[in-house]
What we know:
By secondary structure, this protein is of the alpha/beta class. 32% of the residues lie in helices and 16% in strands. The model has no long low-confidence stretch (mean pLDDT 92).
Amino acid sequence: xxxxxKIPVLPSVKAFREWRQSLDNRSIGFVPxxxxxxxxxxxxxxxxxxxNSLTVVSIFVNPAQFAPHEDLSSYPxxxxxxxxxxxxxxxxxxxxxxxxxxxxxxxxxVEDMYPSGIVQNIEDQKGTFVQVxxxxxxxxxxxxxxxxxxxxxxxxxxxxxxxxxxxxxGQKDIQQGLLLRRMVRDLLISHPLPxxxxxxxxxxxxxxxxxxxxxxxxxxxIERPFAPTLYQALTAGRQVWEEISGSGSREGVVAAAxxxxxxxxxxxxxxxxxxxxxxxxxxxxDTFDVVNWRRKERPEGQxxxxxxxxxxxxxxxxxxxxxxDTKEIFNQL
Length: 333
């Protein structure tokens, strides 16, 4: 990337809106993040750069997504490294030094994003919050109550400020992406339209297929070899679901996945690593309801989400695999 070309860093809502008003009608892609960028984030950035005239990356660690006992204070904050990655991505996009930068970084403060203030204890919070009722309690929401309230609130605020043509989210957080697509539709949000909220397939480590996550940085050297356990368990579960006979069931998926985890737990104990099961479930991607039917009982290709969460030491890992026709999920209709 030419040294003369600098990526704007916009540190407030006011600064961003002034910058946004200076633009013409070019398309804007938006990648909301909490920082600690990895290759999974950069896959979203690359996709946005390829599909839009301008790309905005926001970096904001959202307090409303963390319960009082969770890791807000210790969440990785790596701004300098994040900026290097963004510069590299823009450089790969081969822009000319005479052009306006194709990317900007939005770096708002907590005070900007929560004018009425914010505390982690929900009972003590004041101000306006967004809930997608009936879709927040399943899957991740069952283990992390009110988590999606924080997600829906901050993303609504970010969409209001950025007004993107398209927004990009990773499949690793599949419930988040699908819930936000529903929120955009329900609230009649025009930037982005529901069909322009893009879910991008999960980026994985090449060696063992661990889903990339900022929280992987918490894993110690002795814990890291056990991190792919969840992916291995979900893979075993999906194999059961996709049995040729069509007899795959939710119970069979969960049993197969838990069997893998149990075997790996025994190995982890020998290595001095704590591994704790959180959940494995099979859910409908539209309603998030638990799937209580066998595959052969529904139309061929009807998609399901096979997802789970697992603790390795103090690190909570999540992942999911899809089965069936995923065109609608990945905006490929």
